[in-house]
Amino acid sequence: MSVTYNFSGKRVLVTGGAKASVIALDLDKDALADLKSTHPSVTTIHADLSDWEKSREAVLALPTGPIHHLVNNAGISEVVEFSKITPKNVDTIFGINYKALINMGQVMAKTLEQGGVTTGGTIVNVSSILDSRVVPGAALYCSTKAAVTMLTKAMAVELAPLKIRVNAVRPTLMATDILPLDNEYRLQVRDGLVNFCMERQLSKRLLTVEETADAILFLSSDAAEMVNGSDILVDGGVYTV
Q1: Are 235 and 143 in contact (CB under 8 A)?
Q2: Residue among 191, 192, 204 nearest 235 (CA)
Q3: What is the pLDDT of residues 21-67, one digit of tens each?
Q4: Number of folded domains in the chain?
Q5: Distance (Å, rounded) from C-alpha 122 to C-alpha 119?
Q6: Is 4 within the bounds of a domain?
């Protein structure tokens, strides 16, 4: 059974994204161009989320009006042994995976206030099942996702007066290119992560991006009006075993 959610007349900002009016913000120019060619109605923004001021200015400069729905989807991994973690590693991953969520959340709320929107909006942060599980080599990634899950609850509390609901999805391993595989150690980490998930997933297959998107659509829709400050597992049963 297919489910249809109504986002007509609403504007949606998706970071890392490549009848709603959708705004996709990404650092990857080629991916944005491909998205624009297949979905001409999408507004694309080329910006580096690690740059607080420039990414903020890029969104606020749009003549499109208030942003009703925000999906904080952008994320990176820093695969490195704990003993070899550097300040640059920490700053890089927390800049994208954590600080950018705060920045874009503030921007979204500001556009609603400036636009006189009194009906509120939604924010969905993409966390991970690794917010409370550890895979060797992924200490930084796991830490950022733990921070995202707790940040989601804090945002829900503080943005409630503006009627902005904030939730998170915590997906299991998906077939994406977030994990660089350019050396033997990173390949070992990838294999360890796959084994960890596949041994526990009741469905015994990788999660698809579309399945994660379905959960995000639900949380962004009026069907989830009483879901706020929650983190939803999309894990194929990993946490049941």
Answers
A1: no
A2: 204
A3: 456 665 677 776 776 777 666 677 778 898 999 999 988 887 778 99
A4: 1
A5: 10
A6: no
Question: pLDDT: is 149 or 16 the higher one?
Answer: 149
CATH of the domain at 46: 3.40.50.720
Q: Are 43 and 11 in contact (CB under 8 A)?
A: no
- To the query of whether residue 98 is one of the catalytic residues in this protein, the response is no
Closest CA to 147 of 124, 159, 131: 131
Task: Output the 3-class SS for 72-130.
Answer: ECCCCCCCCCHHHCCHHHHHHHHHHHHHHHHHHHHHHHHHHHHCCCCCCEEEEEECCHH
Query: Pick the catalytic residue: 5, 98, 141, 185?
Result: 141
pTM: predicted TM-score of the whole model, two decimal places: 0.86
Transcribe 169-215 into DSSP letters: EEE--BS-S-S---SHHHHHHHHHHHHHHHHH-TT-SPBPHHHHHHH
CA dihedral over 159, 167, 115, 53, signed as positive or negative = positive
On whether residue 5 sits in a domain, the answer given is: no
- Nearest partner of 173 among 189, 184, 152, judged by Cα: 189
Q: Which amino acid is at 183?
A: N
Helix (H) or strand (E) holding 29: helix 29-38
Domain that holds residue 80: 11-240
Judge whether 56 lies within some domain. Answer: yes
Task: Say if 6 falls within a structural domain.
Answer: no
